[in-house]
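Q: Here's a chain of 127 amino acids. Please give me its 3D structure as tokens.
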Amino acid sequence: QVQLVESGGGLVQAGGSLRLSCAASGRTFTSYAMGWFRQAPGKERESVAAISRNGGSTYYADSVKGRFTISRDNAKSTVYLQMISLKPEDTAVYYCAADRLPLPTTLTSTRDEYDYWGQGTQVTVSS
């Protein structure tokens, strides 16, 4: 079992920045690729970014490329999502998730493949 707790959400003006954190506890953090997802009202949960177990591979949705950066600190069992140049359409509840994968360099952006989820943190971007 892995417990995930997100933090760092809030209200920010368009063009602003936020850094989300997701602290993991329980099983060995380095056994899991990590992902960030978001869900806006009335929409499906979508993949935003993902990072492999060793941090060497990353994925970004086209809508956030160049603005969001995913990273992880395995010593702290924490994954981050740095968000800059935020837009109103980035408003959503952001969730982190953990996917147990056998290889340290692989990752997935497929929601259904993730095993554990956090409770989410709200990000609101005002225009």
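Q: Can you summarize the key feature?
A: The mean pLDDT is 96.
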